[in-house]
Amino acid sequence: MEPTQLHYRGGFGWFLLTHFHQFIHGHSWSSPSFWKSVLGKDRFSANEIPDLTGKVAIVTGANKGIGYHTALELASHGCSKVFLACRSRERAMAAIKSIKQELWLRGLAPLPNYDDDGREIQDTDEDQQQLQFLELDLADIRQCQDAAKTFLAKGLPLHILINNAGIGTERTGLIDGIECHMAVNHFGPFAFTLPLVDRLIESQPSRVVIVSSIAHECSVKGGINFERMNDPTLTDNHYVKYAQSKTANILFAKALARRLVGHKVYVNAVHPGVVDTAIFDHIGAVTSPTFGRIFLKLNRLCAMTAERGALTQLYCATSPEIEGENFRGQWFIPIGYRHSPKKQLDRHELQDRLWEYSEQLVASRLANDGKNFLTQ
Ligand SMILES: NC(=O)c1ccc[n+]([C@@H]2O[C@H](COP(=O)([O-])OP(=O)(O)OC[C@H]3O[C@@H](n4cnc5c(N)ncnc54)[C@H](OP(=O)(O)O)[C@@H]3O)[C@@H](O)[C@H]2O)c1
Questions:
Q1: Which CDD domains match (predicted)?
Q2: Scanning 99, 172, 233, 325, which has the fewest C-beta atoms within 10 Å of its C-beta?
């Protein structure tokens, strides 16, 4: 479809079914920039990604969905190294195989050779490859720190970090005593990102993109329920818990951007759009099977493709406009529009409260001496 399409195509069905709560909030509906993004032309396309030769990027959750297409476009535009930071080597290697085939189809790389079992025959060792697997399980804070250390030990610069991985409506409850959406969507990325900050500073100009969601508008009153976030008896529904974790993403992006203001490290948050991916596959299990079936069918019909869903984060990760306009701690919606998240997220006090809470929680899980990873 052409760039002028209603790229929230079918957004009506989405809002009716799952964003009813958001509809009541009315925040986006009353904003001109939101309507511009719905009705206007795309502000960015994959063709506008500059040459990324020499750049090193990490994309979390790159084995499928929006993250996969993000990694594909970075590699297509010459990014020298793209790390797919994923929890499963098998799934990451399958994604790497598929990206390489796509690069070949685009005439950008030779077709890899495979042995009889379908394994690629490599003529260089893994460290030399453009596309590499980095083991990262965001549900395990210690492993997040180990993943960052593994990357740092390679001695490479880091120009682009895209914290894309996430879970939607899950049944899991608590992971290591932490509400599961907050664990995977916020505390894991926090624990992974902070040890990489010095490397991002050394490699500047560099970018951090934190993938949030417009669903943040449906979070609890006050944005974050610090008192009862990890209380297993809390009866908030799963969507509200997801929304709280997506609120945390924006607060983290804004807090990190403020801490890096003296450096050319540009940190921003995005809503990728309503995208047809696997993220809400479990919705039937946490609502009802019938609702789940209808929802998934409508979502499949109405939502954007993952290719288009990747564009706003690619814009934040690569567009010269970000540096040119000195965009820091901003929030972007499809495709490449700057927009305002909920007003309360601009409060430094709230950003810092989450930062301190996250530092303490991460430190407690690492059972270290509670030292700050990054001081103001
Ligand atoms: N789709 C939408 O409509 C939409 C809307 C707004 C925001 N978003 C955001 O966009 C981002 C990408 O989502 P998506 O739609 O592309 O979903 P997706 O297709 O389900 O992909 C999610 C990715 O996150 C990875 N992941 C999940 N748990 C992980 C863990 N513990 N450790 C490491 N990686 C983990 C998954 O890996 P596995 O394959 O191993 O599970 C997968 O690679 C998420 O942050 C989401 O909140 C999506």
A1: retinol-DH_like_SDR_c_like (cd05327)
A2: 233
